[in-house]
Amino acid sequence: MSKRAAEEMTPSLESSKTGPDVFGYYRTQVEELLSQKEKIPHHKHVDTKKSSTEIIGAELSDLKKEKLNALLRQCVLDSTPEVDEMQSRVDSLHLMSQLSNKKPSTLPTDAESVIPEDPSFKEVEDDIQLLMKSDPGLVKEIVGKHSSDLLARLNDVQQQLEKLLDNVVTTCRPMSRGEKRDLQRTIKELPGENLERVAGIIKNHYVALGKEMPDDVFVINMEEEDNILLWRLHYFVAAVKSARKLAS
User: Fold this and answer.
1) What is the pLDDT of residues 33-55, one digit of tens each?
2) C-alpha distance from residue 176 to each of 35, 58, 181, 222 (Å)
3) SS3 20
4) The pLDDT value given to residue 107
5) Where are the alpha helices (DSSP H) in the chain?
6) What are phi and psi of 187, to 5 degrees?
7) How far is residue 95 from each of residues 92, 98, 101, 122, 143, measured CA to CA in Å?
8) Long-range CB pairs of 104-111, under 8 A, 24+ apart, other chains included
9) Taking residues 150-175, what's their average pLDDT?
10) Who contacts 137 (Cβ-Cβ below 8 Å, separation ≥6)?
11) Residues 169, 58: Cα–Cα separation, whole Å
């Protein structure tokens, strides 16, 4: 089997078919909507009892808030196919990686299929097993190439999504001192894997602003941070809490 044929035997891995930049498109749309400068005046008394969904758009007129909500809902709908496509590529690479790490003599039989539930993967798996027996080095080369392409695509999507989320939280009201204290406390209570994401949010925000990263991102002064970072952290913590409730 030629290298070209091997690369084309799994269409879900084709890196050229990345599709439209959904998050980039909606980020631009949100930026254009918010640039119209029709924010409502600040209120002297901040209502800190509103739910998280009511906080977003608190600084917008009702009309612009409706437009923003419509854009975000459509963004979720339009991004679903792209997310599914990338998930398919991840599954394919995982399958290829599993098989490429096995010796040809120990490749699974039909009864020991790596992913037996999905018929579409069964055909791909058969092709990979055939290639592994003839040229295992080529399989590893293909996995490496497509892994690099997919990682680059995922990084690009993440950056676009980070910018979109930053734009959305610019519509939030100023965070109160009590909310800042609660935020700092709840961040300290997060498990290690969630703290890594907190550090990532802070790092991305500092890089975007051209600011120097603090020595310890977990001891930042909430009183000195801008509203965008504070609400990004707030919504991440809220998402973690919701996930815990669903899992319990």
Assistant:
1) 988 866 555 444 445 555 555 78
2) 25, 14, 9, 11
3) coil
4) 46
5) 3-8, 22-34, 52-55, 62-100, 119-134, 136-169, 177-188, 192-209, 227-247
6) -65, -40
7) 5, 5, 10, 10, 10
8) 104/132, 104/133, 104/136, 107/132, 107/133
9) 89
10) none
11) 10
71 in Cβ contact with 26 (< 8 Å): yes
Q: Are 92 and 12 in contact (CB under 8 A)?
A: yes
Which pair of structure tokens corresponds to residue 144?
């490496």
Position 211, amino acid: K
User: Is residue 149 within 8 Å of residue 16, measured between CB atoms?
Assistant: no
Which structure tokens are listed for 161? Answer: 């999504």
**Measured between alpha carbons, how far is residue 71 from residues 24, 81, 157, 168 in Å?**
13, 17, 18, 11
Q: Which amino acid is at 174?
A: P
Q: Rounded mean pLDDT of 178-202?
A: 91
How far, in Å, are 31, 43, 77, 151 from residue 23 at the CA level?
12, 32, 11, 17
- What distance in Å separates the CA atoms of residue 111 and residue 124, rounded to the nearest whole number? 16
**Residue the block writes with tokens 């419509």:** 70
Two tokens, residue 61: 């007129």
Q: How far apart are CA 68 and CA 212, in angstroms?
A: 32
